[in-house]
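User: Could you walk me through two proteins back to back? I'd like the raw sequence and the structure tokens for each, with a short line separating them so I can tell where one ends and the next begins.

Assistant: Of course. Protein one, sequence then structure:
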Amino acid sequence: MEAMAVDRKRIQSAWQGRISGCLLGKPVELISILQGQNALQSYLEANHAWPLRDYVPFAEDPLVKLAGRASCRGFIRRSEPDDDINYTVLALMMLEEHGLDLKTTHVAVAWLRLLPAGATFTAERAAYRALLQLTGDSAILGLPPGFDLSACAQNPWSEWIGAQIRADLYGWVCPGRPRLAADLARRDAALSHTGDGIHAAAFIAALAAAIPASPSIAQAMEAARAEIPAGSASAEAIAFGRSLVGQTDAVSRLHERYQSLSPVHAVNNLALVVWGLLSGEPDFSSAIGDAVAAGWDTDCNGATVGGLWGISGKPIPRHWTAPWQGRVAVNLAGVGELALPDLIDRTVALAIKLETS
């Protein structure tokens, strides 16, 4: 697979798809994680949103209120801050500064300078805590090359979904270069994750890079799967997700197979992403709607499926993009709210710069 010219329309659709998918899953994340997929389906059915093909309606459910009315249909004015989008913007900022020289130490310093601890969860929060203990005041001046960060990834959540949601942009800016995209994702993931936590991130980045250079998403998956160990649980999850395409009992089989895993583990959510992306390939609304309605980590899966669907270059339907008006809010230090056209311009400029690197 060879490097490709940067396509602005693909980058635009990738951003739009990722943000829209995240917004779709955000209001029902807590229902899904705390009460399960059946409760999620019941909420959607009770509010005439099954099958899910538009933003989630708001109802007086305490978990939906806690997750955020501002991300529900009729209340959306912008893309509200969310860790899925924080990390995509942060990846852009880190590559703008370091390019292909990006190292895990650069990621660590970027977290300390830009990422609020309160906006981190599970593996990321544990890594952040360890990072503070390791660095003391030294991070003010940056970390020296070779600084040992290995303790940061030694946490109980190191194979959960966190690194997987940080990976997309590494593929967007490396079209046709899945190996490079996977390597960049590994450098980022290594700060907080191990094993399948890293493999899942590498696969998503490689897939985002392979899609523009492949005749189909299914063929792009073959190129991306080559970037992770063949016997890993992530590789098995990819194969299982693919085997469920077209099966009417796909969601129940996903939940049955992975019932022992956390709702925010990397492996089960990776299988769901693969199934949702391939099942909804012709139709964006089906892809993100079914991925979110299937449960587990709904905003993460909606964002990942949406971004991967978008990088294929097809336009995102206007009913998904119009409500948030190109306004992208993050809670990175000193950033606040961004305009979608600026994010697209910056991503295209970065990808062009990396073409010759």
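----
Protein two, same layout:
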Amino acid sequence: MTHEHWMQFAIKEAEKALEKGEVPIGAVVVAENRIIGRGHNLVETLQDATAHAEMLAITAAAGTMASWRLEGATLYVTVEPCPMCSGAMLLSRIATLVFGTEEARFGGCGSVSNVIDKNPFGPPVELVIGVQRNECQALLQEFFKKLRQK
């Protein structure tokens, strides 16, 4: 399966967030050619600053695998993870990060800061940027356009 294939599932998660009035960010964790965790932003719904798509997907994946160590897994996320989510990804030993579009305000993977640059917990994280970029950006643009209209 290709990165584009798996990113489509993250985009579907982002669409769920959009329907709930949340910032449309979605994530899936893939291991052994199957999705082991899914999540979409629920910060407003849960009134929890840590309820980011990546955090929820990582937690679900750990539950599926009955282990916090997600070695060899790939995290697909529509928008560049923030420093908190980047740190959680490192701590969970995820091997590859694939994201759709950069985050100019809070990006933790090179745009603003770079939490994953030197991984103190294991081997370097493989980074793939720009997969399905236009679709990921379009979701954000739709959300913020509606927000400005209110």
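The beta strands are 26-31, 34-40, 74-79, 96-101, 126-129.

Let me know if you want the two compared in more detail.
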